[in-house]
Amino acid sequence: MGSMAFLCCMAFLALDVYFPQISSVKDRKKAVLADIGLSAFWSFMWFVGFCFLANQWQVTEHEDNQLGGDAARAAITFSFFSIFTWAGQSFLAFQRYKLGADSALFSQEYTDPSQDAAGAPYTSFGGDDLESPGGGGGQANNDGAFDGTGGYQRQDY
């Protein structure tokens, strides 16, 4: 059971590395849902394994245990902590699902801002806008321009 869980964990680690390159929204959603499902499944399986091992340890007679109880205690402890590890992984995958449902991770309505036709292009700074006060973006009259000799620049409104 531990070897299968380890292989499953390595497969999802590879999927997490590959996840940003998945362009399909449906495939991303399937990957996150599979992560949630398998993490919850392994958490449940480790719980069942812990209950089984603890029950077997309880009914075992001391005379039947010739090798000592260290290996059995280690297996019970490992399965106990694996429950919380896989449950935590399932919780983190659920948080990723909630984050994706609220953001552009699973959004199908995403539009590239550079391809957005509704946005008007920027006008140049020196362009002749009707709304700009000087008509051209630069100073309208250069007689009061700052030349560096008279102190402060005069502001003509």
Note the beta-strand portion.
Answer: under 5%
| Overall 3D shape | elongated
Number of helices: 3
**What gyration radius follows from the Cα positions, in whole Å?**
33 Å
How many strands in all?
0
SSE string:
HHH
How is the biggest beta sheet arranged?
A: none
Q: Determine the structural class based on helices, strands and strand pairing.
A: mainly alpha
Poorly predicted segments: none
On the 0 to 100 scale, the average pLDDT is 76
Helix content: 40-55%
Distance between the first and last residues' Cα: 81 Å
Topology:
Layout: H1 2-18, H2 25-59, H3 70-102
Helix pairs in contact: 1-2, 2-3
Polypeptide structure, described:
Residues 112-157 are annotated as: Disordered. By secondary structure, the chain is an all-alpha fold. It has a domain at 27-59 and 68-108. 54% of the residues lie in helices and 0% in strands. The protein has helices spanning 2-18, 25-59, 70-102. α1 (2-18) packs antiparallel against α2 (25-59). The radius of gyration is 33 Å and the shape is elongated. The relative contact order is 0.09.
Could you list some keywords that capture this structure?
Marvel, 157 residues
Quick overview:
The N and C termini lie far apart (81 Å). The chain has a domain at 27-59 and 68-108. It is built from three helices and no strands.
